[in-house]
Write a structure and sequence with these properties.
The chain folds into 2 domains: about 120 residues, Aminotransferase class 4, branched-chain amino acid transferase, N-terminal domain (D-amino Acid Aminotransferase, Chain A, domain 1); about 150 residues, D-amino Acid Aminotransferase, Chain A, domain 2, CATH 3.20.10. About 25% of the residues lie in helices and about 30% in strands. The protein has 7 helices and 15 strands.
Length: about 280
């Protein structure tokens, strides 16, 4: 079996090697951020969007960023690990940046630590043939504040939504915000299609500032379709013509069933084909 490595603070370690202590603020409080990145045909998809989000989040979380801790530095480290693991062509990358040891009021410092992991992926990005079945996760509500849009290591509501989905034989679960409106799913941003408009909740609704979400809003230009932000209720989902989810690893996944509603995927297929040609 091939050896599999990860990087922790500039050093390679064999997968499974413990590298942080019990006093680490990541372990104690989820104090940090992460990016899930897709490598496709040897390149990082939406690299600028990923690092914009990461460094904006580090600023909000009051990290002190050394001059050499740049996107270029992290990209070089990612590429080095991809090469060492033999994952250069198509891979999933998880980049985690976090504070070191300390209590709530007294971190040792505010400098970033980081871990990078990689896993191989198929050389094809395909639309799911079997549509997803989703429902509402009832046990948590997402706040709408300056931390809500971050890709935070403090991930408990989503982890529990994932367990809820598994227990109830769902493919994913929808998380509502503090106002009872649709926010996102456990692992993706939400889009619905009504007539020729593609709607997704605005960031003010508390959803993570997803990279593919941003791509859809800023770079999508398929004729006859208009992306737009809109507060979405559960009834809006039920009234939608079609329904899909987006994230960095699976750019579009078609949702077939939500409660009593079944959705077709003719328009989702058009959008997917456009996306594959242009990402």
């Amino acid at each position: 079996m091939n050896e599999h490595f990860f990087i922790y603070n500039d050093q390679f370690f064999l997968s499974g090697k413990p590298v942080i202590s019990a006093g680490n603020r990541l372990l104690r409080y989820g104090d940090g951020l992460f990016e899930t990145i897709r490598i496709y045909n040897g390149r990082i998809l939406n690299s600028d969007f990923h690092f914009d989000r990461l460094y904006n989040g580090l600023s909000i979380l009051q990290f002190e960023i050394p001059k050499l801790f740049t996107p270029e530095f992290l990209i070089n480290k990612i590429n080095a690990l991809l090469k060492k693991n033999g994952h250069e062509k198509n891979a999933r990358v998880r980049l985690m940046v976090f504070r070191g040891n300390g209590g709530i009021f007294d971190p040792e410092n505010n400098f970033p630590n980081y871990i990078i992991e990689t896993w191989p992926l198929s050389d094809k990005i395909e639309l799911n043939e079997n549509g997803l079945t989703v429902d509402i996760f009832p046990d948590a509500r997402k706040s709408c504040d300056q931390f809500s849009n971050l890709k935070s290591n403090n991930y408990l509501p989503y982890a529990m939504a994932g367990l809820f989905a598994k227990k109830n034989r769902l493919n994913d679960a929808i998380v509502l915000n503090a106002f009872g409106r649709v926010c996102e799913s456990a692992i993706a941003n939400i889009f619905i299609i009504k007539d020729t408009t593609i709607y997704t909740p605005p960031l003010s609704e508390g959803c993570v500032a997803g990279v593919m979400r941003r791509w859809m809003l800023e770079k999508f230009s398929l004729k006859n379709y208009v992306p737009a932000e809109k507060n979405l209720s559960v009834n809006d989902i039920l009234d939608a013509d079609e329904f899909f989810l987006t994230n960095s690893i699976h750019p579009i996944r078609w949702v077939q069933n939500f409660r009593e509603k079944n959705y077709e995927n003719q328009r989702v297929k058009e959008i997917f084909l456009y996306l594959i040609k242009n990402i």
